Amino acid sequence: MVVAGGTGRTAAFTDGSADFARLVRLLDPAYAGSERVPEAWAEGRYPAVRLTVVWGLSGVGGWPRTRRAPGGDVAVERQDQLFLAEDGTPWVRSDPAPDVEDDDIRWHRASRAVYDELERTGLLGGQAGAPGGSGGGAGWWWAGAGLGAGVGGTLLVRRAAARREAGPPRGEPRQELIDL
To answer: Residue 119, SS3?
Structure first.
């Protein structure tokens, strides 16, 4: 899921889409190293966030880790944020485990050519249909909001169904369907 900095508009992309491939090329989520950043950035005083990407997996979970069938959970794998330095260099701030409270934050430079390509396509804002743009971007915002509401609702329903008192009444006669 992509959140445009400053606007809060969201878009969701899946593996195999052109925008997903562009984000992978720009943010390089497989990169595990870290580069030195200006001291002010290390202290939290960095430029405005241009883009936040939450990388996730759907269809995870289930036995033996939970008492539910596999395939219904969503896992957040990492969070990347894109910044643009004063000299025009795009930087990526990565949190490889956003669900863990730690100080494992990594920085690396991104390709300026790929950044420019994403700027032209409108993925970084400025054009209609983009998370940070205007016009058709409202459709993406609703899609992202719908995705978030759907995931949240699913998790709430699953949690409620997993409660001990949920489900059919215990101790009453049950019926059995027999296929002949």
So the answer is: helix
Whole-angstrom distance, CA of residue 154 vs CA of residue 67:
16
**What is the rounded distance in angstroms from the CA atom of residue 175 to the CA atom of residue 36?**
66
Position 119, amino acid: E
Cβ atoms 22, 121 nearer than 8 A:
yes
Q: How many residues are there in the chain?
A: 180
Give me the phi and psi of 179, to 5 degrees please.
Answer: -90, 120
Nearest to 60, CA basis, from 20, 99, 104, 106: 99
Does the bond joining 169 to the residue before it have cis omega, within 30 degrees of 0?
Answer: no
User: Could you read off the pLDDT of 43-79 as tens digits, one per residue?
Assistant: 888 888 999 998 887 766 666 666 666 666 777 788 9
